[in-house]
Amino acid sequence: MQEGSFIWSHLEKQHRTVGKWIDWVWLIVLLLAAVLLFSINLGGLPLRDWDEGTVAQVAREIWHAPAGSMRWLYPTLGGEPYHNKPPLMHLLIACAYSLGGENELTTRLPGAILTATSVPLLYCIAREIFRQRWAAIYSALIYLTMLPVVRHGRLAMLDGAMVSFLMVMMLCVLRSRRDLRYCLGVGISFGFICLTQGLLGALLGAIAIVFLFWDTPRLLTCYYLWIAILIGILPVAGWYGAQLIRYGYTFAQIGIANPSLGRIGSVVEGNSEPPWYYVIELLKYTWPWLLFLPQTVRLTWENRNLSWAKLVMAWSGVYLLVISFMITKVPWYLFPIYPSLALAFGIQLSETENSPLLSSYPRAWVAGLAILAVAASAGGIYCRRSFNYVLSSYFGRTRRRTIFEDFVLGKLYFAAAVNEI
Q1: pTM of the entire structure?
Q2: What residues have CB less than 8 Å from 225, skipping those under 6 apart?
Q3: In terms of Cα–Cα distance, which of 319, 168, 340 is closest to 176?
Q4: First CA to last CA distance, the chain
């Protein structure tokens, strides 16, 4: 009897070891794929005038600041104090400037790398809440191939870094349910979120609190969690305190009220949209995964007593509800919701992967995918003809294209695919 127990425990230990190796392989593969996708042709287009240009200029002034000016603590824009956001992301870009010079590539690279790390982080989150490894794989791949994620993750903006820190916080929240040492990770990552997006980071922290209140309320009474959150908030409070001491009422009005509370109750920079604006954005840009939405919603509701369904509903529901009632609306505010959607779509695909081909699939899936395939083929033919016309106009129409011209045509295809999604 004891010998049989020993054999089974040994086999179980070997199985866990093999499972860990498989997870590490997938983490490396996902990270390499994400870095490749987010970094290819990163400097191929000029910076956007609004957000990218502002972030780049603040980082540039930090880099060129004279010694002892403490520009890293008191950032400026055009020589004037910059109160909009804490300078964590700007400092990372300034470091990139010191290594690779000032250009579009080094401006976008820190945000792209941080966004790339969010892909394996989502895999880790999915492994925490799903039994099936394929559900985690599907979730990470869906998130990696969502067009808004690739689009905004490659820009020199704050949202990609914020989502990456959000992933770390959610992963630590899930693991802290069985190991309280991860509470420290919750607090530190929450601090990084606030040092990136300012007081708006409190909204993302509220999502974690809502999930714990619904799923593991005992953790909210644990003083380890609140001490860890306090530790994470200390640098944020220090930065805001330093600004208040130096700039006084001006910072309180411009740096706290306008960029944070102003977006909730008033129009900032003319970006006013109706409450259903973000729903329409999701309907426009989450294809082809939107085909699985009705079945995914039903599956999530049917399993609402499970932790993964609670996380998805709290994450997507609370965040979407809050930003929908903000007066100021811009497309990249939706960025933090895409990981939760990817988790829901991932478990839906894993539940149907063993179904007989076509016979048990919803007809809407088959018809929708067929329509998308036809539309993609037609779009590819149209783009090829357009590029052929441009290339023929450039090189001349009276002769056959050379290998070099075919290479240029291929580069045009690739640049359009990477930069316009």
Answers
A1: 0.81
A2: 176, 180, 183, 186, 187, 219
A3: 168
A4: 62
What are the tens digits of pLDDT across the range 19-59? 688 888 999 999 999 999 998 888 888 887 678 888 999 99
Give me the residue label for tokens 């997938």: 26
pLDDT in tens, 72-93: 888 888 888 888 888 899 999 9
H helices of 82-200, in order, are 88-100, 104-129, 133-144, 147-153, 159-176, 183-197
User: Where along the chain do its domains lie?
Assistant: 2-352, 363-419
- In terms of residues, how long is the chain? 421
**Long-range contacts at 46-52 (CB < 8 A, ≥ 24 apart):** 46/104, 47/104, 47/107, 47/156, 48/155, 51/155, 51/156, 51/157, 52/107, 52/108, 52/155, 52/156, 52/157
Provide φ and ψ at 299, rounded to 5°: -65, -40
Residues facing residue 328 across a β-bridge: 272
Q: What confidence score (pLDDT) does residue 155 get?
A: 87
Question: What digits encode the pLDDT tens for the residues 196-245?
Answer: 988 888 888 999 999 999 999 999 998 899 999 999 999 999 988 988 88
Verify cis geometry, omega within 30 degrees of 0, for the bond prior to 362: no
Question: Measured between alpha carbons, how far is 388 from 63 in angstroms, rounded to an integer?
Answer: 44
CA-CA-CA-CA dihedral for 327, 328, 331, 335, to nearest 10: -80
Backbone angles phi, psi at 267, to 5 degrees: -85, 130
Task: Let me know: does 34 contact 119? Beta carbons within 8 Å.
Answer: yes
Residue 105: CA atoms inside 13 Å, Cβ hemisphere, count?
9
